[in-house]
């Protein structure tokens, strides 16, 4: 076998691995009638394609009956809320049951957005009453989104866990109370409705240096095999299906020519 072809082959393999999209979340969720509203919101907010660009996620899905007023909030706010339901690691019920100390802190897609302050981008999951309870990791947040069932999983790329009700992250659709967060800009009227999110408010919510350093390194500690592909990589917008096809095709052509040469 020609020696010079080996490094080339390796780079092709790497390329096709890093640009692989593991799933189509819209298609997966469409098979579960309990989650049609949730699926619609994920598409409407453009979150579906961001989720598809990931190779390792756990989605906390809200059933139709519990979607509540999420459908009446602004697209921007709904998107922020839904990103707190996307965990940037793989957790199925088996992995939850093996949790050390029966509790852990999870990093969500909201943390990546740069809009999270304090612990808004993290969840706390804790074993309770023979199931698990998810909630915001923000201090004193209510944590009562119970794990109801495992909807589907495809280890170690995607797991969908059905939860009883939306996760409520304090301050996610309005500036946080001054006691627990950097104070909102002085000219922000306190009585403004939560929907009116001016760019200035967004700025006020930008993460502090502390938040950034607090973010755990991309799941190095995770025991899933895909842990060595950093999330940033998976996010690259270049992973269109056409490109993937081209790469796979290139790879096969290469393989075929190697076999022929041999
Ligand atoms: C899981 O994701 C990796 C990329 O991280 C991909 O190569 C692999 O094909 C995916 N597995 C499945 C079953 O889709
Ligand atoms: C994902 O699946 C949906 C529904 O089947 C389809 O409309 C959409 O085009 C798919 N998206 C991609 C990127 O393949
Ligand atoms: C999650 O919250 C519970 C209850 O407040 C707490 O006891 C536990 O230590 C928290 N877990 C983590 C990993 O912070």
Explain briefly what this protein structure is.
Helix content is 34%, strand content 16%.
Order of helices and strands: HHHHEHEHEHEEEEHHHH
Overall pLDDT confidence: 76
Q: How many DSSP H or I helices? A: 11
User: How many β-strand runs?
Assistant: 7
- What ligands does this structure carry? 2-acetamido-2-deoxy-beta-D-glucopyranose
Major beta sheet, strand line-up: 2-1-7-6-5-4-3
Sheet with the most strands, sense and barrel status? 7 strands, mixed
Helix content: 25-40%
CATH class bucket of the domain at 13-163? Mainly Beta
Low-confidence stretches: 13-19, 175-186, 188-240
CATH architecture of the domain at 13-163: Roll
Determine the CATH superfamily of the domain at 13-163: FAS1 domain
Instruction: Kindly report the CATH topology of the domain at 13-163.
Output: FAS1 domain
The computed structural class is: alpha+beta
Approximately how much beta-strand content do the residues carry? 15-25%
N- to C-terminal separation? 6 Å
Subcellular location: Cell membrane
Membrane topology: Lipid-anchor; GPI-anchor
Region (Disordered): 171-242
Biased composition (Low complexity): 187-197, 215-242
């Amino acid at each position: 076998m020609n020696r010079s072809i080996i490094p080339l082959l390796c780079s092709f393999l790497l390329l096709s691995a890093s640009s692989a999209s593991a799933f189509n979340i819209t298609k997966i969720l469409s098979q579960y009638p309990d989650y049609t509203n949730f699926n619609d919101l994920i598409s409407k907010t453009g979150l579906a394609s961001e989720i598809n660009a990931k190779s390792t996620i756990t989605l906390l899905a809200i059933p139709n009956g519990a979607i509540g007023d999420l459908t009446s909030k602004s697209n921007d706010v709904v998107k922020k809320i839904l990103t707190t339901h996307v965990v940037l690691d793989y957790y199925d019920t088996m992995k939850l049951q093996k949790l050390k100390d029966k509790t852990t802190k999870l990093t969500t897609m909201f943390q990546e957005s740069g809009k999270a302050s304090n612990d808004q981008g993290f969840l706390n999951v804790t074993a309770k009453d023979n199931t698990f309870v998810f909630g915001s990791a923000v201090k004193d947040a209510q944590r009562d989104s119970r794990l109801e069932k495992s909807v589907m999983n495809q280890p170690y790329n995607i797991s969908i866990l059905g939860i009883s009700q939306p996760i409520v992250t304090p301050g996610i659709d309005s500036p946080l109370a001054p006691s627990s967060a950097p104070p909102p800009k002085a000219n922000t009227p306190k009585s403004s409705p939560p929907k009116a999110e001016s760019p200035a408010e967004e700025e006020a919510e930008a993460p502090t240096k502390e938040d950034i350093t607090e973010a755990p390194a991309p799941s190095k500690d995770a025991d899933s095999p895909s842990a060595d592909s950093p999330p940033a990589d998976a996010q690259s917008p270049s992973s269109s299906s056409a490109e993937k096809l081209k790469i796979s095709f290139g790879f096969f052509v290469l393989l075929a020519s190697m076999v022929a040469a041999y």
